[in-house]
Specification:
This protein is 34% helix and 16% strand. α3 runs antiparallel to α5. The chain has a six-stranded mixed β-sheet with strand order 3-2-1-4-6-5, sandwiched between helices.
Amino acid sequence: MDSEKVAYLINSTPKYYYILELHLVLLRRYAPDLKWQVFLATEEPEHPMCKKLVEHYDVKLLVLEKENSSFLRSRKRALELLPEQYTMVLPMQEDFLLERYIDEDAIFSSINCLDGDPRLFSVRYMPCPGPSESNDSYSGWLRITEEHDTYGFTFQATLWKRCYCQHWYDAIVKKLDEYP
């Protein structure tokens, strides 16, 4: 399943490099037809594991500056560094390990849905429930679009229109910068 508009994006740091190769091995095993470009955003691109991933798994590196290596800032910066051709992104945690084959038809359908419906900004792949009712204790910046966003944001496997994912990270990092 080839799509030149979808980036598979992993942010990681040397503390978790040990799990990256397993992540990619399982991705290739359980999603052999998924031909999305895998990107690794990291602040230590010269690390032997990064070099191995580039050589053996065709991973493209996105080099993060040290000041952009914290959890949220690294994800915001990685989105900024992605080549412009990628209009959708699947941000993944390095410890998200596939344990069974993916439903390729559902993945393909989700891309078509995001492409075809301007009201949609993401498709969550994880079968986990979100909140069942609105929680007024959250401020408005947690919501991208109040009308359609019933769970705010999740770090679970979710395919995003890149611009909305970027919008969320921009908003939360800005909010953190304003925090006293």
